UniProtKB/TrEMBL annotation:
Protein known as: Glycosyltransferase family 2 protein
InterPro entries in the record: Glyco_trans_2-like, Nucleotide-diphossugar_trans
Domain Glycosyltransferase 2-like: 6-138
Record has Repeat as a keyword: no
UniProt KW keywords: Glycosyltransferase, Transferase
Organism in which the protein naturally occurs: Shinella pollutisoli
Amino acid sequence: MSYLLSLIVPVFNGSDYIARAVENLSRIHAISNRIEIIVVDDGSTDGTDDIVRKTMPQTERFKLIVEPKNDGPGTARNTGIRNATGEYIWCVDADDIVRHEKIEAILSSLDRDHADVMVAGSRAIGSTPDSPERFSVISNGPRNSLLSGEDYYEKNYIQCFFWKFIIKREILIENKIMFAEKLFMEDVEILPRIMMFTKRLLISDIVAYDYILRPSSLTASMNPTVSTFRMTSMLNVREQLARTRQHPRCGRRIAAAIDARIRLLDAAIMQAYACHPLEAGMVRPVLARMKDAGLFPFRHVNRAGGMATVARYGLMAAINLSPIRLRRLIQWFYVRYYASLIRRAA
């Protein structure tokens, strides 16, 4: 049986919140028999899959797929897409909230507007039950009218949260668009590839998604394994964006938006290299890739004054070699420098 909407929910080691997620998904499941829900456990080791089995509705419209090992959200989303039968797919995060009271309005809009992509309205809220709404995640463009993917991406290339997008499955399947696997920032990489093939995009005013704000983990960001993975992922994303820019279907405005996105990514790469420790033996390979990408010396800073450039890169090298107290002091100064890079790159 085929459905109008397939809701795909990847999860990894989500035992602290997956029961609440399944409770909410069960409400959505009960609203319409035109929805299927696919939870993809990405190799969890904390019993997440057992919690889902015990709490999920036992129907063919609510499925659990368990991956043998953890390969990241891109792989889990790909598994969900391959197993989906809905006309549209909606990949959401297990620790956020799809507002079940808005689902009927979403389905009606999909029936009525026949969009290739719907951009759902969303809001960001705090992580505690009594947290107020912080802000709405607003897309630039006319509400409730159709535009092209090129029109949308030109004005919204920074907003790449994939949970905003409800996408016709045939666009992904027919054009062989899948997520890059084992990658951080996979949303940034895939979005322009989808927009190239999107003729009818609807920016909806239906606020159907709550993005839960959580404190970032300084401990995780200072872990050399984590920071090396993020650093190499950003370099991989940069290379993929450059390849996408050369695609025959990449229009002039999407290409210009990709260029702007790469400039922002370049600044983030420099900040990550300067402020986060890399694994032993990875500093030289990372610098070599940065040099191949034209980031060494950094092309988005004023090159006037050779000694300033030498001092800047000496500072970055010192950060990846210095004791922790000195590193923190240098980072405090460098974060302020990074802010100027972002302004200049944008």
